[in-house]
């Protein structure tokens, strides 16, 4: 029976950050799960498939190596490669999406998901897809796949040790966080890090200070585990610690984005950092530091991480989603030394970390010096893209909108008059193909005002930026005015 390839060639996306070999891998799993490819059915040879898809043989070889390692395919020598007969008795899991997201489906209407393979202009949550080093990534992946036996065993519960060693060195140099590799736990994305914290430390009804407005996945996660969320207003100095202490002085946790607050983009001031850490120490509480977008600072010097100032009460979370790609689903958690026993105990019972192959490739990427070069390239590109978007918006809107331009991060905020409906405007913008997000959709209880959030990460040329600004102008009523 000839394999039709389930039109896999039409589904490959050459412009997204997910490498082609991963796309082929996922399409095979999808076809197997849907019964399009059946156990013992022969699949095309590497040469035939690479020719039909017009991709390199190494790309198909990488995809097949993954499928063989994970038991989906079975090599039969001269007879070729077939779908594993053992799959007939196996409960298959659905394949991961092309651009995966840790966001609960109920939150999709509130903000831009990173799940679209065709990012809309201004869409939040994505890095520059055109800058992902696909060729190098494929090369490193093929290199690691040659060591196939390593990836057929269970990964270390806390994560691949060489990656944790590389991260410890990186955090020391870039964020001033002094930690041993043993303090670092590799997790499946940001939500995986929160999950590990929750299973180790958080009890139902524990009070958690949460920034208001906030990053929606954090709110949804805390609600799902039964924590009591204490919304704390955010101003130009970040979370208002004095108000938080009045609202819930005995809270057990504070979840903050101090580098660039999501979504307002402000930085937690040094005075408030010290207040927050003093509160945590005095109350035996914990600060969960989501070091959101800390890699990108355009004006002034970045503040040190909270974990570099008071590590005994800080749980530090970092991810690769904005530096590399969200499809990696790779994050890391740094815990204080006195909590290692508890976190290791939970880790050994969960086994839900990131695939070992991905960890090994990221390790190779970091140890080879590619990570530092890529980060420098991204910073330069984002500074340029930020500027062309600011110029295009100023050219089109003049004084009609007031723009908050954070010192870092990957998005801007346009302030609207209070009488305007930013949710309706964002919806209208979406209907015109723009990935705009409404600020008020991220509020919990405080009045953060009305505004529109939009990313500049994928605005590649002044011409496109101007075109998108003009399209946004058409979405706004002619009576729009700025608030004072």
Automatic annotation (TrEMBL):
The molecular function GO annotations come to: DNA binding; DNA-binding transcription factor activity; L-aspartate:2-oxoglutarate aminotransferase activity; pyridoxal phosphate binding
Q: What domain of life does the native source organism fall in?
A: Bacteria
CDD domains reported in the protein's UniProt record: AAT_like, WHTH_GntR
- Spell out the InterPro entries in the cross-references: Aminotransferase_I/II_large, HTH_trans_reg/aminotransferase, PyrdxlP-dep_Trfase, PyrdxlP-dep_Trfase_major, Tscrpt_reg_HTH_GntR, WH-like_DNA-bd_sf, WH_DNA-bd_sf
Q: Which Gene3D superfamilies match?
A: Type I PLP-dependent aspartate aminotransferase-like (Major domain), Winged helix-like DNA-binding domain superfamily/Winged helix DNA-binding domain
What are the EC numbers?
2.6.1.1
Asked if Transcription is a keyword of the record, the answer is: yes
Annotated HTH gntR-type domain ranges read 18-86
**Key words, A-Z:** Aminotransferase, DNA-binding, Pyridoxal phosphate, Transcription, Transcription regulation, Transferase
Report the family membership: In the C-terminal section; belongs to the class-I pyridoxal-phosphate-dependent aminotransferase family.
- Report the protein name in the record: Transcriptional regulator, GntR family (Modular protein)
